[in-house]
Amino acid sequence: MRITMTGTDAANGPASMTRNTDKRRTPEQIRAGNRRLGLVLLAVVAAFFLAGVVKQVYFAGH
User: Taking the complete model, does pTM exceed 0.70, yes or no?
Assistant: First the structure.
């Protein structure tokens, strides 16, 4: 099965994920989102690390 594009779709090239160009995120918004994601991931890693340390200390004598 082959799908071909005709007319204006073929002229415009591949379709973009964002159809409305007014709703594109600015670089500042992208950086803020990346920072937020990084902090969440860091918090998850810190929670696992802390749980491991607590487990070692709490169950060391048993």
Answer: no
